[in-house]
């Protein structure tokens, strides 16, 4: 997230004409993307792209919307993500433990620059978050709860530092979407701690959704970027878990605003099942059909 549909909308929302968009793609790679293909991706959340098109859009998006975080913190995040993804790394656990020692020291220093500290808090939180599902699967409840608590703590610290940065008069503001992603990780700390079939009735999940500003933040994101259909879909999903008619109707309206295809509850965007076929949306579907 965001997917190709959303990245194309975000690029176009800079005020580009289609001719400008095609020219920018041409400058990334000679030949670019043909106009018909680009416009079909712009209109259709379900459209699957060729790898060439995907790579071009990804490259252009990174050029136009670089990370707001310092390069050294981003480099550490990439190293960690590669480490987590490497199945053959025999010292993975000890290397992550060593990384935590470094990060724990760094985040306790005075929080300047703010964005560097926030990204390191985010990374430290990830090192704990990535253990939550694993501990759930092997039944290590105490270890799970300890990692969950640490992950939530450092995600909250990351949010506080980003918000502090955004309150300053100078410098570019970090987007609402990036803040949303951190809050999404906090929610995932609760979701990943329990079996999928128990999530709709878990009190900790429901309490977080009811009393946090997760859904409010989702709406703020969609004010800035109404084409982010995954955000709207998640809002509808969690409105359904809360059994809130108001939230379901609001986020369904936002979902349809992102693309009229979503008026059909049986519609399947790329990589996701239809809402009508997903258990988590059962309550919402009943409300929306009445």
Descriptors for this entry?
3 domains, 290 residues, mainly alpha, 0% strand, globular
Could you explain how this protein is built, in words?
The mean pLDDT is 93. The protein folds into three domains: 4-64; 68-193, no CATH class; 218-290, no CATH class. α12 packs antiparallel against α13 and α12 (229-241) crosses α14. The protein has 290 residues and is mostly helical. 67% of the residues lie in helices and 0% in strands. It has helices at 4-12, 18-28, 35-43, 51-64, 71-85, 92-107, 114-138, 141-166, 176-191, 203-211, 214-224, 229-241, 245-258, 282-288. It has 14 helices and no strands.
Write down the Rg: 20 Å
Helix- and strand-based class?
mainly alpha
Helix proportion: 55-70%
* Chain-averaged pLDDT: 93
Largest sheet, in brief, is:
none
Q: How many separate helices?
A: 14
User: What shape does the CA trace take?
Assistant: globular
Number of domains: 3
Number of strands: 0
Oligomer: single chain
The separation of the N and C termini measures 31 Å
What share of the residues does DSSP label as strand, in percent? under 5%
Provide the succession of SSEs. Answer: HHHHHHHHHHHHHH
The unreliable regions are none
């Amino acid at each position: 997230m965001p997917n190709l549909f959303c990245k194309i909308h975000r690029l176009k929302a800079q005020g580009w004409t289609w001719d400008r968009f095609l020219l920018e793609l041409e400058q990334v790679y000679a030949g670019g993307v043909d106009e018909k293909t680009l416009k079909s991706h712009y209109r259709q959340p379900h459209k699957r792209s060729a790898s060439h098109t995907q790579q071009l859009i990804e490259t252009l998006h990174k050029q136009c919307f670089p990370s707001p975080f310092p390069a050294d913190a981003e480099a550490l995040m990439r190293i960690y993500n590669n480490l987590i993804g490497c199945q053959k790394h025999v010292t993975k656990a000890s290397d992550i433990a060593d990384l935590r020692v470094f990060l724990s020291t760094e985040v306790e220093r005075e929080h300047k620059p703010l964005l560097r500290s926030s990204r390191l808090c985010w990374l430290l939180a990830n090192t704990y978050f990535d253990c939550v599902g694993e501990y759930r699967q092997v039944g290590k409840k105490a270890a799970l709860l300890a990692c969950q608590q640490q992950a939530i703590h450092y995600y909250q610290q990351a949010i506080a530092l980003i918000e502090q940065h955004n309150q300053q008069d100078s410098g570019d503001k970090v987007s609402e979407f990036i803040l949303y992603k951190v809050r999404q990780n906090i929610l995932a700390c609760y979701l990943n701690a329990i079996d999928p079939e128990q999530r709709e009735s878990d009190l900790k999940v429901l309490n977080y959704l009811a009393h946090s500003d997760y859904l409010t933040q989702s709406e703020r994101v969609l004010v800035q970027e109404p084409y982010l259909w995954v955000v709207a879909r998640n809002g509808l999903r969690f409105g359904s878990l809360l059994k809130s008619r108001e939230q379901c109707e609001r986020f369904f309206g936002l979902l349809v605003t992102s693309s009229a295809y979503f008026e059909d509850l049986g519609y399947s965007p790329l990589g996701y099942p239809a809402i009508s076929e997903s258990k988590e949306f059962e309550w919402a579907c009943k409300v929306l059909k009445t």
